Amino acid sequence: MIKSMERKKLFLNISFILIISSIFLAILSIIFAFSIHTQRMAFFEKEDIYFEEFSVKMKDNVEIKGLIYVDKDLEEKEDNSVPTVLLLHGINGRKEDQIYKIFQLVKRGFAVFSVEQRGHGESGGFCTLLRKEPGDMEKIIDFIEDHYDFSNATHIALLGFSFGGGIGAILQAKDDRVYASVLYHPLVSIDHLIDLLPFQNLFGFTYGIGRLEDIKDGLDKCTTSNTKNLLLIHGKDDELISPDDSKELYNQVGGSYRNDIGLEIRPDLNHFENDIDDESFKYAIIWLEHFYIDSSIDIINRDLEITYIKFEDFDYPDSSIPELLILISSIIFFLGFSLLLLTTKVWPLSSEISSNLQNKISNDRDIQNYKKMVLSRVIVYIIPVAIGAPLFALFNPSYLFGYALIIPIVTIILFLLIPRFEYSDWKSKWKSHLKSEWNHWYQNNFKLLLYGIIIVIMPVLFYVIIFNFNAYQMKSVPIPFFNTTMILYLSMGISTFFMDYLLVRGLKTQHSMILIFLRPLTLLIFFIFIPIPAFSFTGLPISGEIGQILIFSLIGLVFWIVLMLMIQLRKIYKNIFPVMLIFFFPLIIFLLFVFIRLV
Known about the structure:
The protein has helices at 2-46, 72-75, 99-107, 133-147, 163-174, 190-196, 199-203, 218-221, 243-252, 271-276, 278-292, 302-305, 321-343, 364-395, 399-415, 426-474, 484-504, 509-512, 514-529, 544-573, 576-594, and strands at 49-57, 63-71, 84-88, 111-115, 156-161, 178-184, 230-235, 261-266. By secondary structure, the protein is of the alpha/beta class. Strands 1-2-4-3-5-6-7-8 form an 8-stranded mixed sheet, with helices on both faces. Helix 15 (399-415) packs across helix 17 (484-504).
């Protein structure tokens, strides 16, 4: 008893030390964030740059967020004379991106309005992949025209990247207030994108986007009469958006016989390299300066003109220390908080967990029942895919909503009819099993589930709140945590892994390894009905279909490894729901941080 009390006291002390340490690191991250905030404010003050946030409500009540950057002296003007650039980021971009380019443009006399498209970052709504975004930007130009007397909003300039370039192509064709445009590898052909990356099969007929084939893109909208002063910059090695798309648009608007239409195919640059290439940016600068600042710049002889472009020194304060500190702090907080609950007996320790179910296999009858159970689970695992895939192919050919969400849920319902090994004779014992299992869960597991959710959510909220606080201080990218995407990915992840858990519960380890083969098999069955072409840009040494099959094969192995870790964790946490949350909340944070809200 004395040793037990001493052990409990030791664990309590360790948990408090961990929690206090995490709080200390969190405070330290905030201090670093304030330091960077002070340095950045000093930077803007030294460079005489005025900036502020703005927000515009669209017709459907979606809030579009943005940032303004302009020289302080120019901001005080009231004659609408300051040349203004509307910056349109690429897919998964943010309004805080492209600060280097923004700085160079501001130092050359431009005001820059960096806009966050709907479904991105802090802007609301869902990304509609060119369906609503051009109309949103017209509203943004209205807002600029109505609220900023310094801006020459009747002769706006566009600087668009990829998805933003596709928005810009449509916008300049629709709105006469757009006077000149520079579009990097613009998304001007939805059809070509579908051929390369089957969005319809990935996302189906989703809210906001609808049918991709019905979206009017730049090739549909741009003509010789509604397109002017346009420069297209495209990497020759771009595999995401083909340079042929820019060439087609260039020819469609009569670029070969017009001086106000330009095309630069940049050698040895892919999609992302072109984004950050200084020489590509020099082409953009001379184009904008010709139409807004110095018409003597010869945009026909661009190769010569870019040799005269010199960039301003850019010593913008930056540091990843606050993000790193809060990440470490959150992990330590999770460990300390978990240990605290475990030590105070809110959670049952591993010694209280019953022995492994596979030890109950004792005689021939049990062995036969066990084999039948394994076989029935394998069959049930495959049936929903074989039935569900053609249904999704008919009604909504969607990989994301089909396999990763609905099919696992259907499988879970079927799996619930197959109890654990000790109830392998489930035909005669199902009713009593159902009643006893419900009573057991309600009396014992419900409390554990609530605490399990708390033990996972608290550190995640701790991380997100302080991360976002630091991000707002540093004028960097926050994590849009509270949105519908989190719910979607969480439900997909939990349903998929819960299905796998139901499959292998009570099985011997060697039999649980069938998951390594069943996961790729069910994927392949699904892709028979909903084909996803092999990606040519997987980054693997072996690309194409072979590389894709390799990826699918590894999925089974990865799922099995994660599941085995979950089962081991369950020896501590006992309840499977918080164990799955432990694995998926970090995934949710990652997806929220890097993935667009496309669904």
